[in-house]
Design a protein that fits this description.
By secondary structure, the chain is mainly alpha-helical. The protein is built from 15 helices and no strands. Helix 3 packs across helix 4. The protein is globular.
């Protein structure tokens, strides 16, 4: 059942990925304008970005004291990108990390690192957006967004480390017979969250998120230089990417459908790039990123986790009839 659900998730994720390519004619026309050197550089940057994200995920798993190798954490993230276009597709990385546990840890142990990673990303893009607003001399009211994002991440870390909050949640679950069985799960998650929501665990994870965002900003700079006369300065790219990702986190739309593209187009236009060119940059950036992640995810999933997708079971061998039954059957015929 779980393997069937996993196969369905990957298939649905791939379908949404191809659907989200949006306007294939626009993407093809834009790619035709890019030189081979730029395309190779883009692919190299996308590769570096995914490796940084994979190592960040492996770090959070290790910081939670889970017995998993760095390479296993990296491949569980890369394979999960096969469902990156699916809302909640990030949960696949937690599920695949469970495959390396050998029964020593379960999904309830790998899910808290995923949650902490999300709030660490929120803190990272909030800092980048704040720096971008100051460097590009934007209106001061825009500071509300990054400050809000950073405060939310800070409140989450403080709440996760609170023993009083954990005791309260366990008490609420114990009151009902239907939720009483969830108390051990909640306590395991609470212990893992307390371990992860410390400066020792959070600072390297947030630093990796900042590095990943800077690589993404470099991709935007490269696309703008190739597709526009004006181009895009590095600090402008940091501002655009930081504010776009803040909208992704703060606007309650599953997987940021529409908000990422519209936010990127609007911010590029605000910087001074025409609407048509901004649309081409946004669509090409999203198409390349999503297509690259999906292809890499499917490849790693098939190579490293093929046993999860395809559980090949041998057909049961026919059992020979016992000698006693054969004798009784022959006596009955006589």
């Amino acid at each position: 059942m779980r393997r069937g659900l996993l196969v369905f998730t990957v298939a649905l994720g791939c379908s949404i990925a191809f659907w989200r390519f949006g306007d294939p004619e626009l993407v093809r026309a834009t790619l035709d304008r890019l030189s081979v050197e730029i395309v190779i550089t883009l692919l190299a940057l996308l590769t570096v970005n995914e490796l940084v994200k994979g190592l960040r995920w492996a770090w959070y798993l290790r910081a939670a004291h889970l017995p998993i190798r760095i390479v296993d954490g990296l491949t569980s993230y890369l394979a999960s990108q096969a469902a990156s276009a699916l809302p909640g597709g990030a949960l696949l990385s937690a599920r695949l990390a469970e495959e390396h546990g050998g029964g020593k840890f379960r999904l309830r142990h790998t899910t808290p690192p995923l949650l902490v990673q999300g709030f660490g990303d929120l803190a990272a893009v909030s800092l980048l957006a704040l720096a971008g607003i100051l460097l590009t001399a934007q209106a001061s009211f825009q500071l509300v967004a990054p400050v809000t994002g950073f405060v939310i991440a800070l409140l989450f870390a403080s709440g996760a480390r609170s023993e009083r909050l954990g005791t309260f949640l366990a008490g609420v679950l114990e009151r009902s017979r239907a939720t009483r069985r969830l108390v051990p799960v909640e306590r395991d998650a609470q212990r893992t969250l307390r371990t992860l929501c410390t400066p020792r665990a959070l600072v390297p994870g947030i630093a990796a998120s900042i590095v990943s965002s800077l690589v993404t900003a470099a991709i935007l700079v490269l696309l703008a230089e190739a597709l526009t006369l004006r181009g895009l300065r590095p600090h402008e790219a940091v501002y655009v990417h930081g504010m776009t990702m803040l909208a992704h986190f703060l606007v309650p739309i599953p997987n940021g459908f529409g908000t990422n593209e519209l936010g990127l187009i609007g911010l590029l236009n605000l910087i001074g790039i025409g609407f048509g060119r901004a649309t081409a940059i946004a669509v090409t950036y999203r198409a390349l990123g999503l297509g690259f992640r999906t292809v890499v995810g499917i490849a790693v999933l098939l190579v490293r986790y093929h046993s999860v997708l395809f559980a090949l079971r041998r057909p049961p061998m026919p059992q020979p009839r016992p000698a006693l039954q054969l004798e009784l059957a022959s006596d009955g015929r006589d």
